[in-house]
Amino acid sequence: MAKNNYTDGCTDVVCSVDYAFKRIGGKYKGRILWNLSNKNILRYGELRKTLVDVTPKMLTQTLRELEEDELVSRKVYHEVPPKVEYSLTDIGMELIPFINHLKEWGDKQRLKEKVLSSLKTS
Amino acid sequence: MAKNNYTDGCTDVVCSVDYAFKRIGGKYKGRILWNLSNKNILRYGELRKTLVDVTPKMLTQTLRELEEDELVSRKVYHEVPPKVEYSLTDIGMELIPFINHLKEWGDKQRLKEKVLSSLKTS
DNA sequence: TGTGTAGGGTACAAAAAAGTGCATACTTGT
DNA sequence: ACAAGTATGCACTTTTTTGTACCCTACACA
């Protein structure tokens, strides 16, 4: 018999929860995926304006990671000036329900916080 | 007319997607929540054994954050040796369906990766 | 000939997150 | 008297993640 039975399916270096969080973790990934799910296709510059606080370097880096992880696909038009379009892959789309629900949960929590703080100042 | 219409509901410092990711982001938070949802109640030491790679410092720190965010509740028994039990709050429980969804997505992806790599070595 | 434009790249610096090592309290068992 | 067990706390270091500043390309237009 095993000395302990606290195994959690996370006995490898990472379990699936860990694995998934790593793939969508990071400061901008959630918002990029969410915006792509709303607009279907966004150009680099559009993403940059949408995620107001992102720097070009971080946007590029994050998009590259999402692309490598096959959550986002990148379509380059060989025009001048250049044009690059980003959209969700099928794998990426499967995450959208999760992100939507998370957003709704966040909305709810933020609303609660707002109500509570307005009660304090009154 | 506005100069651009790329607003995304994220015009505050953070939008709800951002907000939610911050509350459940971090190396161990997802796994802690998921394990608590499976076992209902876990003691500090049990969590430590379950999350094999966590250091005591990080576990304590993460649990404190989850407690402050009201995702997890902490019950101290004034015994010797000390005993502390952790469980999900109602707010924390609301996140479980999404974490489960994420886990299933992760399972599926990892399975795919496994199949692909076994094809390569054959 | 010079300027603007879209979508980047790179080196370096700063900030945030995580890890290490050591210490503590109290009590029961040897 | 002394070690063991449980759940931490704290100072310090390392690692990871972000940010800053500046550079490039290729064509179109004036």
UniProtKB/TrEMBL annotation, chains A, B:
GO molecular function per UniProt: DNA binding
PROSITE patterns: HTH_HXLR (PS51118)
Domain HTH hxlR-type, chain residue ranges per copy: 15-114
InterPro entries per UniProt: HTH_HxlR, WH-like_DNA-bd_sf, WH_DNA-bd_sf
Protein's organism: Flavobacterium circumlabens
Coiled coil: none
Official protein name in the record: Transcriptional regulator
SUPFAM superfamilies listed in its UniProt record: Winged helix' DNA-binding domain
Keywords, comma-separated and alphabetical: DNA-binding, Transcription, Transcription regulation
